[in-house]
Design a protein that fits this description.
11% strand, 4 helices, 92 residues, two-stranded parallel ribbon, mainly alpha
Amino acid sequence: MLGKQSDDYETRKDQERLDLYKIQLEQKGFHTNTRLGYEWRTKEIVRIVKEEQADMLVIGAHGHTGLKDFIYGETVNTVRHELKIPVLIVNL
């Protein structure tokens, strides 16, 4: 509801996790930017990727099957169809 003004436990933990990933990637020589999105996840991911003019998106998938894939798998599917850059899907 508060978007960027959110300051709850989950938002702080998400930012900490992103910061950790950023450090690990930069230690390997990659240039990285991290940003949290809010509300509609698919729209936010696509918006942020386009704003950042990213060369590639790495996105996690949970490997659901059947009905769970239909319910939870829409994010990856929608995002990859909206972008014109390589999308690497990593099963978590």
